[in-house]
Write a structure and sequence with these properties.
Layout: H1 25-33, E1 40-43, H2 46-53, H3 61-71, E2 79-81, H4 88-91, H5 97-107, H6 117-121, H7 134-153, E3 159-162, H8 183-191, E4 198-202, H9 209-214, E5 221-228, E6 252-257, H10 263-281, E7 285-289, H11 307-319, E8 324-327, H12 334-349, H13 385-401, H14 405-408
Parallel strand pairs: 1-2, 1-3, 3-8, 4-5, 4-7, 5-6, 7-8
Helix pairs in contact: 2-3, 3-12, 7-8, 10-11, 10-13, 11-12
Bound molecules: the ligand O=C(CCc1ccccc1NC(=O)c1cccc(C(F)(F)F)c1)NO and zinc ion (ZN).
Length: about 400
C-alpha cells in the first residue's frame, strides 16, 4: 500500500502542522498539494501478527490491534511494510551469543523441558516461559523494530510504527519481565548509526530498566521513563535519584508515580518535562515506547489513564518534527490496548476517528459500549499535589545538571 495520493486528503492536514500564515489561495493550494502529510511506515504482516499472537501474556492482542487499525481504514494512510527477521549477527550487536544460542536451542523443543536449570539462567522462568518458536519470534519482532529504524535513517519516513515491539526489560544475556529480547536497544543502536542524539521516552506502567541500563553511561542517548514505583512492584528500579552514571550522568531521567494518576496530571507533568529535555538535550531523533498497561481497566489496576494521556505525549513529540519511532509494549486489557494504539496511529497520520467502533471481525471485544474513547475510572489518586510538585522540581533539578548539548560538544 503506497502512501495515499495527496489529492485524496486535501481537507486533512496533520493536526500538528503549523498554522498557515496569510497566504494567497494559490499559495495555500500549492502548499497543501506539497508533501505536508507525514510519511508513516507501519510494520505489519500476517506472519508477525501470528507470531505476536502466540505470546502467552498478550495472546491474540496483535490481531485486535491490527484489526482495529484496519477497521478505521488507517492502513490507507500508512506505508505498510512487511518486516524481515533479524539475523543472529544483528541480534548479537546487543545480546550475548550464549543467550541467543540458548534461545535457538529451545526454539524447536516442545514445551515440556522449558523450566530447566539452564533456562532459569537465561531468565526463562514462570513469568517468562520459554515456548516453542521463541527464537523465531525474537527475530521477527526485533527485525521489525530495526527495519522501522532503518526507514528513518534512509529518510523514507517521518514516523515509523511497530506495535509488536517495545520489550523494554530485555537484558544483554537474559529474558526478563517476559521480554525475550530488547528490540528497543537494537533499534536505538541502529538509529545511532545516523543520528547523534537519541531521546528515548518510556510511557509504559513499568520502568524501562533494560533500555536505561544499556545506555546509562552515554550522553548520546537520553532515556526518560515515567512509571509506577511501589514496594514490590516490578522491576523496582527507576527512582528519581537514578540519573545514570559516568558520561551518562543526568542522561537518565525517571518519573516515579503512585497508583491512581489521571490523564490531566500525567500528561501535564510528562509534557512539561519533555519540553525541558528538548531545550537541554536537543535530540535528533525520538523513540517512544507506548505501553498501555497504565490505562484504566488493565489487569495491573494501577494508573487511571485513558488513551488521551499517551496521545498528548505523542502529539508533543510529533510537533517537534523530528524523525520518530513508535513502539508498543505492555497492555493486558487487549481491547483498551487496541483502542490506545489505534488512536496513536490516527494522530501520527493526522486523521480524526469516529467514536463508534466500526463493524469488523473483532467488534464484540469492544462491548458493552463499542466506543473508541475509554472512560476514566473513579480510582483514588495516591499522588498528592505536593508529591507531584516536589517530583517535578526534583526532575527539573536533574535535567538542569545536564550539560546543554553545546556545552558537552
Ligand atoms: O508489562 C510489563 C511486564 C509485566 C511483568 C513483569 C514481570 C513479571 C510479570 C509481569 N506481568 C504480569 O504480571 C502480568 C501480565 C499480564 C497479565 C497479568 C494479570 F495477571 F494481571 F492479568 C499480569 N512490562 O512493561
Ligand atoms: Zn508494563
Amino acid at each position: 500500500v503506497n502512501d495515499i495520493t495527496v489529492k485524496e486528503n486535501l481537507p486533512c492536514v496533520n493536526e500538528n502542522v503549523d498554522d498557515v500564515t496569510e497566504k494567497s489561495d494559490y499559495d495555500i493550494k500549492t502548499e497543501n498539494t506539497r508533501q505536508r502529510i507525514r510519511r508513516v511506515v507501519y510494520m505489519h504482516s500476517r506472519e508477525i501478527v501470528e507470531a505476536a499472537n502466540k505470546m502467552i501474556k498478550v495472546e491474540n492482542r496483535a490481531s485486535l490491534v491490527s484489526g482495529l487499525i484496519e477497521s478505521y481504514g488507517l492502513h490507507k494512510y500508512l506505508r505498510v511494510t512487511e518486516p524481515r527477521p533479524a539475523t543472529f549477527d544483528e541480534l548479537s550487536i546487543f545480546h550475548s551469543g550464549e543467550f541467543l544460542e540458548f534461545l535457538k536451542s529451545i526454539n524447536d523443543q516442545d514445551d515440556e523441558e522449558k523450566y530447566t536449570e539452564e533456562a532459569q539462567l537465561y531468565g526463562l522462568s514462570y513469568d517468562c516461559p520459554a515456548h516453542t518458536g521463541v527464537y523465531d519470534y525474537v527475530r521477527l519482532i526485533t527485525g521489525a523494530t530495526v527495519q522501522a529504524a532503518e526507514h528513518l535513517i534512509d529518510n523514507m519516513a517521518d514516523a515509523a510504527i511497530n506495535w509488536f515491539g517495545g520489550w523494554h526489560h530485555g537484558k544483554k544475556d537474559s529474558a526478563a519481565g517476559f521480554c525475550y529480547s530488547n528490540d528497543i536497544v537494537l533499534g536505538i543502536l541502529k538509529l545511532r548509526e545516523r543520528f547523534s542524539r537519541v531521546l528515548y521516552v518510556d510511557l509504559d506502567l513499568h520502568h524501562g530498566d533494560g533500555v536505561e541500563d544499556a545506555f546509562c553511561s552515554t550522553n548520546k542517548v537520553l532515556t526518560l521513563s515515567v512509571h509506577k514505583q511501589a514496594v514490590g512492584f516490578y522491576p523496582g528500579t527507576g527512582k528519581v535519584t537514578d540519573v545514570g552514571c559516568g558520561k551518562g550522568k543526568y542522561y537518565a531521567v525517571n518519573i516515579p508515580l503512585k497508583d491512581g494518576i489521571q490523564d490531566t496530571e500525567f500528561s501535564t507533568l510528562v509534557c512539561r518535562i519533555l519540553v525541558k529535555i528538548k531545550e537541554k538535550f536537543d535530540p535528533d531523533v525520538v523513540v517512544c515506547q507506548c505501553g498501555a498497561d497504565g490505562i484504566i481497566g488493565d489487569p495491573m489496576e494501577s494508573f487511571n489513564l485513558t488513551q488521551l494521556s499517551l496521545g498528548r505525549c505523542i502529539s508533543t513529540l510529533l510537533s517537534w518534527k523530528l524523525p520518530i519511532l513508535l513502539l508498543g509494549g505492555g497492555g493486558y486489557n487487549h481491547a483498551n490496548t487496541a483502542r490506545c494504539w489505534t488512536y496513536l496511529t490516527s494522530i501520527a497520520v493526522g486523521r480524526k476517528l469516529q467514536n463508534d467502533i466500526p463493524e469488523h471481525k473483532y467488534l464484540l471485544e469492544y462491548g458493552p459500549d463499542y466506543e473508541l474513547q475509554i472512560t476514566p475510572g473513579n480510582k483514588k489518586n495516591d499522588n498528592s499535589k505536593d508529591y507531584i510538585q516536589n517530583l517535578y522540581h526534583d526532575v527539573l533539578y536533574n535535567i538542569n545538571q545536564m550539560m546543554t548539548n553545546t556545552q558537552s560538544r
